[in-house]
Fold this protein.
Amino acid sequence: MPSFIAPNSLDVAGPLGTRSEWQGPAAARVWHTHVVVCLAMLFWLAATAWARPLMLPDEGRYVGVAWEMWVSGHWLTPTLDGLPFFHKPPLFYWITAASMSVFGANPWAARAAPLLGAWLGAVALYLFAWRWVGAVAARRVALALAVQPLFFIGGQFANMDMLVAGCITATILAAADAVLCKERGLAFGRSLVGAYALAGLGCLAKGLIGVAIPVLVIVAWLVATGRWRRLGALLSWPVLVIFAAVAAPWCVANQLRFPGFFHYFIVVQHFQRFVGSGFNNVQPWWFYAGVLALSSLPWAPLVVRRWVGGRLDGVRRDPVRSLMGIWIATVVVFFSLPQSKPLGYVLPAVPPLAYLLADCAPALLGASQRVLLAWRASIAVAAALCLGSIAWFAADQPKSTAEIASVLKSHRVPGEPVLMLGHYYYDVPFHAWLWDPVTVVDEWHAPGLYATDSWRRELADAGQFAPAKAAATLLDTARLPAVLCRAPVSWVIGEEHALDPYAKPNRAQAVLTVRGTTLWRVEGGCPSARSSALFSAP
């Protein structure tokens, strides 16, 4: 948990109260409340994480990498289909693989990393609000954040976005806590150490944004509120060493093993992705602002007038409110600059948005019963939207091959090879419990392979770090008939008619077709290379 969960000093009266309030039954009640709130948030986030199979491509991709890490026992280098995969750092894979080793290979265990990220962010925000604005306000903030649909769904979506958002949230709040404690003459060392350690974890969660976003937010806040002299208190060699000790060893170890690692991981996956246009989900500049406005419904209309009318004049004087507003603006502006705008990138702006929404509640509590009822109804509607979204995703899974993988798992004999034709189905190894890489058959020397951000590009990039393994697993379609001859039985997954040019019907049995994707059982065992013509279409 963040280091500001308990007071750094009990000798100075302030937002934490005096020493007497932290002794005896009063302290026990405070800790009991913290435990109840934190466990309730964890239960709310985790209770429905099992309800749907993995969604493609993101969940299948990243959980598949964690699956390979677990079954191979190689925890240093993430792999995709057995090939070194350096799109993202390893924290998500470590957490997910560890979760599967404890709870088994199932969707709930596969979502442990985003759940922990969401819970870390929620706990950090709750404890920070409790420390600086009071217990009642902290509970309102926790409730407002918990029912944010973006936050709730992000906490159950198995990719890096919520994990890094949680680390970013906790880092910013720990650093802000250190600044506010310093101003009030309280000890701030633990909060500062926590901020740098959390920033290191943020880098291990998704790279440099784990430290870049907190730095931008804190610096902007200090400058905008006239606290820029506090920057010096946040910088020291010991805490920088702590950050490096957390963030650097994995990078150094892989650079020593793969000489091109730094260029690919830092230059290509950070800077080129940020400024480039060949990546996914290109959106207009206002996309994230619109997403936040939409996600804050249905209660936003009730509070916007009150916030604008009676709160903005005190933003500069209130360091917590100013922090939250600057935090939202920084995240939105930073991620609006590149053309590629994946939805999850805006998740670090959701906790401060929830704080500002909850900050308007006191004005509403003194309003008419009609307005108060509308506020409570808005919370209920938001919670219903959270649960309804999970139910909808569970009922309609157009981007999943879990059914095919289940059939493959039940019919395949260990040792029978699996081939994917014209596509890589990320979630199949996890759902089918495949312990070895599959063979992916495609036109690997076709022009334009690197033109778009696709599964082909990911595997081709990974293959550059292990050319010998890539030659064995990434095969051109011309070699498919010979490959099918080698084993008595092979299993092929591809589009419904993708195998027609390569295997006669009496040798390839379509076992299952789901939404245009087919699983075939192919009998091979050709006595000679010349007999591979048996697999050619007439």
